[in-house]
Write a structure and sequence with these properties.
- The complex is a heterodimer of chains A (398) and B (276).
- With 398 residues, chain A is α+β, with helices and mostly antiparallel strands.
- Chain A folds into 2 domains: 191 residues, no CATH class; 127 residues, no CATH class.
- Chain A contains 13 helices and 13 strands.
- In chain A, strand 4 and strand 5 form a beta hairpin.
- Chain B is an alpha/beta fold and 276 residues long.
- Chain B is built from 9 helices and 10 strands.
- In chain B, the strands form 2 sheets. In chain B, strands 6-7-8-3-9-10 form a 6-stranded mixed beta sheet, with helices on both faces.
- In chain B, a hairpin with a 2-residue loop joins strand 9 and strand 10.
- Classes of the chains: A alpha+beta (398), B alpha/beta (276).
- At the A-B interface, helix 1, helix 10, helix 11 and helix 13 of A face helix 2 and helix 3 of B.
């Protein structure tokens, strides 16, 4: 008897009692669905973080100077010369001054727009291109000019595409718009990467009443050597402060790796818990198969009398369990995808439009393989019981 | 024709607690190809054991059973399954059809285990079902048929693999007298076509239909010879099947090996007569 024929027989028996088969599969369906959604959520979170970090730039280091009293500090020039000295690892540097001032366009306040004071190198460091106008210049910074470069979201939504040459008020001070950036992010919502304004850091520091610059962004030559580049800056700063608490160098790559591995741990634990329901589902299948073997004792006796070998009976029942389980797995995959897209819709509506639940092909294949495997594993015991039945007793069984 | 079935001092003992039941006690017999033999005995006489051994469902405790020259006692379970599949056609008292399959699928089962391809299987099953007069009910389920029709399906299933022996275990036990005659007629016809038929029954009147009777009592052969010879059975009365209120439909319940006290008494009378 061929495998195809055994499969056909198994499908017939499964379809012969649909309700029972469905209930038998339920454990597997729930388990597979849970695994797929959870792993999908983990993937989504990882992608979300990678995207967010990518916009910050994984080729850059953030240097934060917390200082040590007021006795010692580093000037902007010190920082620039440090980068110039270590050109083998470090590329460019820009001070960054984040401002939490309201942005006003034509008497309308936009709180989602980020305002950052930067140097003339910043756009190049972040791979930002201008769609029109000009970049900041050294003179703008030296003279603390009130000029601004706006992101495409600001241009499109607040100026209807005609921002260049217009003005914007930041913290009550009027800035002239000298440049407009190209779109970086196709998702159109307030607070995205394009909802931004860049001004000279010197201007930003003055408005904020900030004498010293505390934050710098440094780009590195080679992303692979983020750790070495970080070490170079740390060593240089230690020489100034003699205190490792006075500064903090953050590598985005490092943070991304750390967070990714944390998420992975959480997701793995959750997936294992979900996988326990696969095990429970397998036991459910075994239970029903045992009942089924008892119910079909007479059928087994007849089949044996008519010449079915033990291996054929064994195969028949294992196939039935595996098919039940694999069908459950398939339904679970479908349900997992459906729930994932539902979850994505809900999350995007309530939490963050960038976050989506993305089931991975790997988890789907694994879920299917595991569910079929569970069927074989848990189907084996009942199948063996059936195969070893004595034909005479089985024939007499009422 | 040659010997097809040969028992040499076949014994089958069952240990039940302290006592050993001798279900078959040094049975020796030969059945030739093309014979129509009835193995008769009361319940407990060992005829079921005999039939299980002949049917390769069981192996003897001691002694030798040769089927077509092969020593069945030396075969493993797989080989026994193969022998059942290729050499034997079973007809059971309870028909033992698979209720979820339709008639043609039921008849196909032995061929499926023999590895016959789908198309050929279907064709052969159809031919056999037509030959037992059920060509118009191929797609029906067994429970849509009368008892007699179901037994004919079971005969078709026994025949489809072209076995060397057709082994009928109380084939009329669940049927009314009219249908019983029909089924017996079919068996006789099979015999006349050259098939070897072994009929196991407790009922002398049924056994009389065979050419030869082997009578068992307490696991021993007490008579082996022509069914029409004076010693086979002594007819003290005209054997009439017990009138049954619902003969065919409630087959499995109504039919059983242990008949009412009346039937047993009748049997005893006859055997006593035979011995006299």
């Amino acid at each position: 008897m061929s495998y195809l024929e055994t499969l056909r027989l198994a499908l017939r028996n499964i379809m012969g009692s649909k309700m029972r088969s469905f209930l038998t599969m339920l454990g597997i369906i729930i388990g597979v669905t849970a695994v797929i959604v959870i792993v999908g959520l983990g993937n989504g979170m990882e992608n979300y973080m990678r995207d967010s970090f990518a916009s910050l730039g994984t080729n850059s280091l953030t240097v934060m100077i917390t200082g040590r009293g007021s006795a010692r500090s580093v000037s902007i020039d010190d920082m620039y010369s440090m980068v110039a000295e270590h050109q083998d690892y470090l590329d460019k540097i820009s001070p960054t001054v984040s401002m939490s001032r309201a942005v006003k366009v034509d008497n309308e306040t936009h709180r989602s727009t980020s305002v950052t004071g930067v140097s003339e190198d910043y756009l190049a460091m972040k791979d930002l291109d201008l769609s029109s106008g000009r970049n900041l210049q050294y003179m703008d910074i030296q003279d603390r000019k009130n000029v601004a470069i706006v992101g495409s979201y600001v241009n499109e939504n607040y100026y209807y595409g005609r921002a260049l040459g217009d003005s914007v008020r930041i913290g009550g001070i009027k800035f002239r718009i000298i440049g407009v950036l190209e779109e970086q992010n196709s998702d159109d919502y307030a607070g995205n990467a394009d909802d931004c304004i860049f001004i000279p850091y010197s201007t930003a520091a003055r408005i904020s009443g900030q004498g010293t610059i505390y934050n710098y962004n440094v780009t590195i030559r080679d992303e692979e050597k983020a750790a070495e580049a970080k070490r170079v800056i740390e060593d240089a700063l230690y020489e100034v402060f003699s205190d490792s608490d006075a500064y903090n160098v953050i590598s985005m790559t490092e943070i991304l790796d750390m967070m990714t591995s944390m998420i992975n741990i959480v997701i793995t634990v959750l997936a294992i818990i979900a996988a326990i329901s696969l095990l429970v589902g397998g036991i459910g299948i075994m239970n029903i198969m045992l009942v089924s073997v008892t119910e079909r004792t007479r059928e087994i006796g007849i089949r044996k009398a008519l010449g079915a070998k033990e291996i054929v009976i064994l195969r028949q029942f294992v196939m039935e369990a595996a098919t039940t389980s694999a069908l459950g797995g398939t339904l679970g995959i479908a349900l997992g995808y459906a729930l994932s897209s539902l979850a994505t819709t809900i999350i995007q509506a309530t939490l963050d439009p960038m976050l989506r639940v993305t089931p991975s092909l790997g988890s789907v294949l694994m879920a299917f393989g595991v569910s079929a495997g569970i069927g074989v594993l848990f189907g084996f015991l009942p199948a063996r019981k059936a195969a070893l039945l004595n034909p005479i007793d089985a024939l007499r069984y009422e | 024709m040659g010997t097809l079935i040969e028992f040499k001092e076949v014994c089958k003992y069952y240990v039940m607690g302290d006592t050993t039941v001798k279900a078959a006690d040094h049975i020796s017999m030969k059945i030739d190809r093309g014979e129509f033999v009835a193995i008769v005995g009361q319940s407990g006489s060992g005829k079921s054991t005999c039939m299980n051994i002949i049917g390769c469902l069981d192996v003897p405790t001691s002694g030798t059973y040769l089927l077509d020259g092969r020593d069945v006692g030396k075969l493993n379970k797989n080989e026994l399954a193969e022998i059942r599949n290729r050499m034997l056609g079973f007809i059971f008292q309870q028909y033992n059809l698979l209720p979820k399959l339709d008639l043609i699928e039921n008849v196909e089962v032995p061929l499926m285990y023999a590895g016959v391809g789908r198309a050929e299987r279907r064709q052969r099953a159809q031919e056999v079902l037509e030959s037992v007069g059920l060509g118009d009910k191929l797609g029906n389920k067994p429970n849509e048929l009368s008892g007699g029709q179901q037994q004919r399906v079971s005969i078709a299933r026994a025949l489809v693999g072209r076995p060397a022996v057709i082994l009928a275990d109380e084939p009329t036990g669940a049927l009314d007298s009219h249908t019983s005659r029909e089924v017996l007629g079919l068996l006789k016809e099979l015999h006349s076509q050259g098939n070897t038929v072994v009929l196991i029954t407790h009922d002398n009147s049924i056994a009389m239909q065979a050419d030869r009777i082997i009578r068992l009592e307490d696991g021993r052969v007490v008579y082996d010879g022509d069914s029409r010879a004076p010693g086979a059975v002594v007819q003290v009365q005209i054997p009439v099947a017990e009138p049954q209120s619902k003969p065919a439909e409630d087959g499995p319940q109504a039919a059983a090996e242990d008949d009412g006290p009346q039937a047993a008494a009748e049997d005893e009378t006859q055997i006593a007569g035979g011995g006299a």
